[in-house]
Amino acid sequence: MTASPWIRRPRVVPEARIRLFCVPPAGAGPSFYARWLAELAPSVEVCLVHLPGRESRYGEPPVDDLDVIAARVAEAAQPLLDRPYALFGHSMGALVAYEVAHRLPHEPERLFVAGATAPHRPSAEPAIAHLPDAEFLAQVRHGYDGIPDSVWTNQELLRLLLPMLRADFAACERYRWPVRTPLGCDIHACSGTGDHYVPKHGLAGWGDLTTGRCTVDVVGHGHFNLVSDRAAVLRLVREHLGPVAVLEGTRHD
Q1: pLDDT of residue 142
Q2: Is the distance from CB of 81 to CB of 59 less than 8 angstroms?
Q3: Where are the alpha helices (DSSP H) in the chain?
Q4: What is the pTM of this model?
Q5: Please, what are the domains in the chain?
Q6: DSSP state at residue 183
Q7: How far apart are CA 168 and CA 158, in angstroms?
Q8: Residue 247, helix vs strand vs coil
């Protein structure tokens, strides 16, 4: 099987009972989910979506079209669908995961969407990708609480991150939900308390996009609840994946 740069498999598990494809939020790379590898059972193979313009793909230009991103991720995932799979996406990653689910030859067992309003509902997030650099970065810092202060004070790092951040925000802002037949898989939506861009009623809208079950949970705090309250989010993932995802004898704090 030829490896694709679009999906990293840090721990290949030939006997895996399910694969979990994890799509990072805007501005992040596959390492966003690195700690999940040791915190889900060995029977779950965690596959990390790796977009251009970040981490080991830094030298490649970032992509500012969400449909193109979803098409490339779906293409890379197809050889890995020889067993059940699920998709998890956070923020921008949730939109990508949803679009990937529609592009694959068979649906996932589960679709997890975190920190994202259902794509057919109006978003409360303002368009900022077009703003001048300083104003754009100020808006990102004001609206999202998960980027450490050490990043904002490092001007050289900000200069390196800026093209990727701007492309990711542009991809989300340009995306328009095409009217689609509902999925048949269960969708599990969550956000953190105090995430003013993703109100609970926005999460509930995901139920319109599947004929399966839709659960809505408020887990942890803030837009980046996957960072501040990782253990709580992972408990939710384990609960919905079932016994296959439980790692016996390991603390998850």
Answers
A1: 82
A2: no
A3: 66-77, 92-103, 133-143, 149-152, 155-174, 200-204, 225-228, 230-241
A4: 0.93
A5: 7-245 (3.40.50.1820)
A6: B
A7: 15
A8: coil
